[in-house]
What does this fold into?
Amino acid sequence: MSAAGAARASAARTAAARPAHAPSAAASGRKSARKAPRRALDDSALAHLVGYAASRAALEMRKVFAQHMEPFDLRIAEFTILMLVATNGDVNQKQLGDALDISPPNMAVTLDRMVERGWVERVRSTHDRRAQHVHLTAKGRTLAERTRRISATMEEPALAMLSAAERALLIELLRKIARRGDAAS
It folds into this structure.
């Protein structure tokens, strides 16, 4: 008998000895290598909720942010603080916390981390000795400028299905909702 014939006969004997309900090693290997496609959940019960749609979109935008800002080891709150400090001059910790809805202790921790990294510094106010303003360091200004340039285009692929007018309208409507929340607090 040829080697190929002997191998076929051996495989046939192994298959005959295996219980009918037990899959062959090759079949079980194929099953474990092939994953069943993930079934999309029916979220129609949530379709009327702006908050749900906004949260789902925000998850996608966070992925885009992480992908582009990962090389800088920069979190969303830190990026936002860099941009706000860069464009607002004498801004203090309370103003930043209010703008980002971050509690004073958490804002202090975030700013401490940014100070340690050399991005910002706290400077005592000349008008009110109790207040400290947050300023960008030279390193912080460089980082803010680099990441601002990246942020100008990083969302383009994720928003490609929207026209420029739709994108502008989406931003305007989301900002309108956010302003209402600001006015209520």
The two ends are 87 Å apart (CA to CA). The beta strands are 91-92, 120-124, 132-136.
